[in-house]
Amino acid sequence: MLVNLLTILLLAPVLVQSLDPAFNDDVLGIKCDSRTNRVSELVLDGFSLSGHIGRSLLRLQFLRILSLSQNNFTGTINPILAQIGNLRIIDLSENNLSGSIPEELFRQCGSLQAISLAKNNITGQIPDSLSSCSTLEWVNFSSNQLSGPLPSGIWSLTALRSLDLSDNSLEGEIPQGIESLYDLRAVNLRKNNFSGQATRGSWWLLAIEIT
Ligand SMILES: *[C@@H]1O[C@H](CO)[C@@H](O)[C@H](O)[C@H]1NC(C)=O
Ligand SMILES: *[C@@H]1O[C@H](CO)[C@@H](O)[C@H](O)[C@H]1NC(C)=O
Ligand SMILES: *[C@@H]1O[C@H](CO)[C@@H](O)[C@H](O)[C@H]1NC(C)=O
Ligand SMILES: *[C@@H]1O[C@H](CO)[C@@H](O)[C@H](O)[C@H]1NC(C)=O
Ligand SMILES: *[C@@H]1O[C@H](CO)[C@@H](O)[C@H](O)[C@H]1NC(C)=O
């Protein structure tokens, strides 16, 4: 089973627990054990799973990690994910998801620390609600077709350590001084259409490491 490196880094302590062996497949490909109903991690990266990510996940109310990277899920990003209040990590990278990122996804993001939607086919703008997600440490929306400006509040996310928005069609001005923000350690905004003074330094052409 492939586990995303960053997932390991961020949640090594939690990942030590193994998967609940008692799922069966349903429409989604996932079901939690109806006896305990307490699956806390779902790490099914690279399982060639397909279909939509749907309502069945709501049964996993104790889910903390949802990692379905490198599968073949299609359809849009389901806003019901926001109703799983314990979610810390959402990794849906390297699938075939389309549509836009739903505004509701971040409206009440209780304890969300990491989200990756990288390498899908996601369009539209990054929703403003992202700015209210004060627990977010790691955001990766790289290699999609996102467009428009960033939510202005994105630079006020005080917990943010890593932001990868590379290879999209994002635009707008990058404020100066973001390199000194808080705990922000890695920013990758390559292959977009940003402007502003901050973009002039060659450091913007590379992933910035600030430690
Ligand atoms: C994903 O699904 C599409 C459409 O069903 C199929 O053409 C493609 O081969 C699948 N890719 C993988 C990696 O399974
Ligand atoms: C993504 O899905 C579309 C149809 O929804 C399909 O045509 C395409 O081959 C898929 N791409 C991959 C990389 O699986
Ligand atoms: C973002 O996700 C892509 C695809 O999974 C990966 O290649 C890249 O390294 C990730 N970026 C960061 C900063 O982790
Ligand atoms: C992205 O979506 C477009 C339009 O639906 C489609 O033509 C293209 O094959 C998709 N790309 C991938 C990588 O699935
Ligand atoms: C990038 O921005 C410039 C100026 O705003 C605009 O003329 C150009 O069409 C944009 N390019 C893309 C690929 O969005």
From TrEMBL:
<dbReference type="InterPro" id="IPR032675">
    <property type="entry name" value="LRR_dom_sf"/>
</dbReference>
<keyword id="KW-0732">Signal</keyword>
<keyword id="KW-0472">Membrane</keyword>
<keyword id="KW-0677">Repeat</keyword>
<dbReference type="InterPro" id="IPR001611">
    <property type="entry name" value="Leu-rich_rpt"/>
</dbReference>
<dbReference type="InterPro" id="IPR050994">
    <property type="entry name" value="At_inactive_RLKs"/>
</dbReference>
<protein>
    <recommendedName>
        <fullName>Leucine-rich repeat-containing N-terminal plant-type domain-containing protein</fullName>
    </recommendedName>
</protein>
<keyword id="KW-1133">Transmembrane helix</keyword>
<keyword id="KW-0812">Transmembrane</keyword>
<feature type="signal peptide">
    <location>
        <begin position="1"/>
        <end position="18"/>
    </location>
</feature>
<dbReference type="InterPro" id="IPR003591">
    <property type="entry name" value="Leu-rich_rpt_typical-subtyp"/>
</dbReference>
<dbReference type="GO" id="GO:0051707">
    <property type="term" value="P:response to other organism"/>
</dbReference>
<comment type="similarity">
    <text>Belongs to the RLP family.</text>
</comment>
<dbReference type="GO" id="GO:0016020">
    <property type="term" value="C:membrane"/>
</dbReference>
<dbReference type="Pfam" id="PF13855">
    <property type="entry name" value="LRR_8"/>
</dbReference>
<dbReference type="GO" id="GO:0006952">
    <property type="term" value="P:defense response"/>
</dbReference>
<dbReference type="Pfam" id="PF00560">
    <property type="entry name" value="LRR_1"/>
</dbReference>
<keyword id="KW-0433">Leucine-rich repeat</keyword>
<keyword id="KW-0325">Glycoprotein</keyword>
